[in-house]
Each structure stands twice: as C-alpha cells, then as structure tokens.
Design goal:
With 245 residues, this protein is mostly helical. It contains seven helices and four strands. It has helices at residues 14-26, 36-40, 67-90, 99-123, 143-164, 171-195, 213-221, and strands spanning 2-5, 29-32, 58-62, 227-231. The strands form two sheets. It has a two-stranded parallel sheet. A two-stranded parallel sheet has the order 3-4. The protein is globular, with a radius of gyration of 17 Å.
C-alpha cells in the first residue's frame, strides 16, 4: 500500500492517520509530493526563533492531564526535530551534503513533519501549541556539525519516548508513541551511519537510554526558547538498564 501526501491537511484526516500508523508499523510506503515541507513549515508547527534557550515564555506541561501531557511533551520534541531538519533541507544549496546525504535527510525531514502534524492533530486545538527552537551558532551548511547535532537530537528523542511511555494509560496513545519511536530509532541509526559509514556505529549499544521528563527537559531546553516546566509530575520513575534516567 502507498499513500501520496501533498497537503498537510491530509495528515489530519482520520483515515490518513490510521493508514499512516499502519504503514509505519508494517513498512509501507508514504510518498511526499513536492511542496509538503514548505506547506507545513508554519502550519500548526514550530515557530523558529533566535532567542537564548529558556529566555521565552513559560511552557508548562501538566501531568494531571494524563496521556495529554505525555503527547504534549512529545510534541515539543517533534516540533524541534521538524524545524531542525527543515532547516537542513533549506540549506542544501550551500552545504557540504552529497546528493545521497540529501536524499536521506529529506526523508527524515518529511518523517518529522508527519510526526509533528500527527501529534498536533491528535491533541487538537485545546492541547496543541507552538514552540520556538534555537540552535546557537550552528552552521547548517557544515556537514559534520549538523550530523553531530542530529545524532544528539535523535538519541534524545528515543530516550524521551522510551522513558515517558511508562506514564501512558491509553492503548491508542501507547501505540502512537511506539510507532513514532520506532521511526526515530531508525533515524538515529542512519545518522550514525552517515557519520561513520560501514561500521558498527549504527548500533552502539545493546540497550537504549530511558529519560525521565526532567532529564529529557534539561537536554531539550538547550534548544528551545520557551521555558519548559512541569506540574503534577508522577512521583516515581522506573529507570532503564543504563540507569541514567
């Protein structure tokens, strides 16, 4: 099965969302037609900024809302990722990325836009919001610097999803995040392979990190202008095998 997507609005339609989740889990094909990234650049997505990390307005995620809070935290991460990779694509003309690199990174950018739009649509008007990413002095034309940052962002994404999954109560929410994190894990592997091709770097360890919300937020805050905070955090956290959550 293949779904052709040319308009961000398609990602909000219930049949498309169900098909998207099924395809992600089953290895189906999503074909993104020209213009998707530009169409999604500001539609229900990240508002890019140049301010210092944590210098903006408070962004408080209230865990008394249950699964909504977990999905909102995921939305912060996906807005960062969608904005980050969209900037990479926009800088291709003057960058050091090869044609092969560009194909891979364009695919990742499309994936992250889908994740952002899907989470935003799932949360709806009462739960969705926009954040402002910031990257300091990162030069998006420098291959090594960009891939190093991409590696850190993808690793953070996997650790965040693996960590917050324990707070989910709804089967639908768990299925959604499980499918997203499976894609993020593939991103982490392919970024490592771009950095160190034909080595074992794509799978450096037997187990992934599991980050608690505060640990994940500390890492996220370095690239978000909004000041991330929490209310009613769960009292406990089951740490992972790496014991660094």
């Amino acid at each position: 099965m293949r779904i052709e997507i040319s308009d961000a609005a398609q990602l909000h339609a219930p049949p498309t969302r169900r098909d998207f989740l099924r395809l992600v889990g089953a290895g189906g094909a999503l074909l993104f037609l020209p213009g998707l990234l530009s169409a999604c650049g500001s539609d229900a997505g990240a508002v890019t900024g140049t301010g210092a990390p944590g210098s903006g307005e408070p962004l408080v995620i209230d865990f008394s809302r249950g699964d909504v809070a977990v999905l909102q935290f995921a939305l912060v991460l996906e807005q960062l990722e969608a904005d980050f990779y969209s900037r990479i694509v926009a800088a291709f003309a003057s960058s050091g990325f090869s044609i092969a690199d560009q194909a891979v990174l364009s695919d990742i950018a499309n994936h992250e836009v889908v994740h952002r739009e899907l989470l935003s649509a799932t949360l709806g008007a009462d739960g969705s919001f926009a954040v402002s990413p910031t990257y300091g002095g990162l030069d998006f034309t420098k291959r090594a610097d960009v891939l190093a940052r991409a590696k850190a962002i993808e690793d953070l994404g996997v650790a965040t999803y693996d960590g917050v999954a324990q707070y989910l109560q709804g089967a639908d929410s768990l299925a959604l995040l499980a499918r997203i994190v499976s894609v993020e894990g593939r991103h982490a592997a392919v970024i490592r392979d771009l950095l160190d091709p034909l080595t074992g770097a794509f799978a450096p360890g037997a187990t992934d990190d599991l980050f608690s919300p505060p640990t994940a937020a500390t890492a996220l805050q370095g690239q978000i202008v909004d000041r991330i905070g929490f209310l009613a955090l769960p009292a406990g956290f089951v740490d992972g095998p790496n014991a660094n959550g």
